[in-house]
Amino acid sequence: MSWVTLIIQADATNAELLSDALMEQGALSVDIHDAAVDTQDEQMLFGEPGEPCGEIWQNAEVSALFDQAVNIDEVMHSLTNIAPSSGQLNFRLERVEEQDWVRLTQSQFDPIQISQRLWIVPTWHQAPDPEAINLILDPGLAFGTGSHPTTQLCLNWLDQNLRPGTKIIDYGCGSGILAIAALKLGASHVTGIDIDHQAIKASQENAARNHCVASKFYFTTTHQAAARYLQPQEYADVVVANILANPLIMLAPVLAQLVRQQGTIVLSGILHQQAAEVKHVYQQWFDMHSDNEQQGWVLLTGCKR
To answer: Which of 100, 153, 192, 247 could make a disulfide contact with 170, Cβ separation 3.0–4.6 Å?
Structure first.
C-alpha cells in the first residue's frame, strides 16, 4: 500500500482555510509548515510562554496525506473557492511507499558520543562503551535527542564544568536529557521545568528509564516557577536553558531570579548573529561571555553578580 502527499503553496491568509478544506476532502492528516524551513529564509514564530502564537508563515506549505486512490484533480477543484484572490494554487505531489516505519525511524538514530565519557544511546542499541556515562534516550514528542548542536553544546558544558553536589534547574527541559545528564554527572538535585505537558511526561519516563529516581520534574508556568524558587535556600547553582533567542530574551528576568549569587547561567538555542543581543540583555545580572560554538549555534554562560 502507498499514499500520496499533496503539498500546496500557501500564505498567512489562506493556509488554515486550505488545511480545513483538505481535511473535509478526506485527507488522513494535514500540516502547515514554513516553505523555507532549514534555509536562511526560515521564519521563526514566537509567542508568550504557554500561549499559542496565533501566526502563520507568510510563505507556507500545506501538506496533506491521502490514500493512493484519491482523485487529486477533484480535490484541487474543490479548493478553487478557498483562496480566490491568490489565483491558481501551485502544488506538487509526492508518493509515500509502505515501509517498516519503526525500523526506518530507528535506523536514523545511532548512539551519539558527546565526549570521551558521555554517550546518548537509543534503547535498541547496545552501549558502545558500557563503562561510559550512557544516557538511554529514544526519539519522542519532546525536543532533545542529543543530535542537535544546541543540546550537544549544553551536554559538553555539563560534562566539563559540573561539580558534584550542584543544584540545577533545567528550564525548558523537553525530553529531560540535560536534567538526566546532570544527575548522572553528579548533581545533587535537578529540577526540570517546561510549559508542555508532553515534555514533562517524556522527562519523567526518560528519568525512570535511566534510573534517576531521585530526580524531580515540575509542570509549571514561568510565573509559578519564579514563585516556587524565590526562597534563598532554593536558588540554583546552575540554570541551563536550551530554548531559542527570543524566548530567552523575554524570560531573562525570570531566569535571573532562579540563580544564586555567584551561580551560573547557561543559555543555548542561540544563533551566532543573535548572541550579542542575548548577551546584552543578560549582562544586567551576569558577567556574560560566549563559551562555545557549533554549526552556527552559540552557547552563552554567565556568573551572577
So the answer is: 192
CA–CA gap between residue 71 and residue 19 (Å, rounded): 17
Pairing of strands 118-121, 112-113: antiparallel
Which pLDDT score is estimated for 303? 98
Rounded distance between C-alpha atoms, residue 169 and residue 238, angstroms: 6
Domain spans, the chain = 2-98, 106-304
Nearest to 170 by CA among 121, 225, 112, 209: 225
Q: Is 194 annotated as a binding residue?
A: yes
Gyration radius of the chain's alpha carbons: 22
What sign for the dihedral angle of Cα 120, 177, 167, 291?
Answer: positive
More confident residue, 219 or 299: 299
CATH number of 106-304: 3.40.50.150
* Sequence-distant (≥ 6) Cβ neighbours of residue 24 within 8 angstroms: none
172 is in an annotated binding site: yes
* Residue 47 marked as a ligand binder: no
Is 14 a known ligand-binding residue? Answer: no
pLDDT (average), residues 191-204: 86
Give the model's pLDDT for residue 212. 87
**2-98 CATH pick, 3.30.450.150, 3.40.50.1100, 3.20.20.70, 3.30.70.120:** 3.30.70.120
The pLDDT value given to residue 219: 61
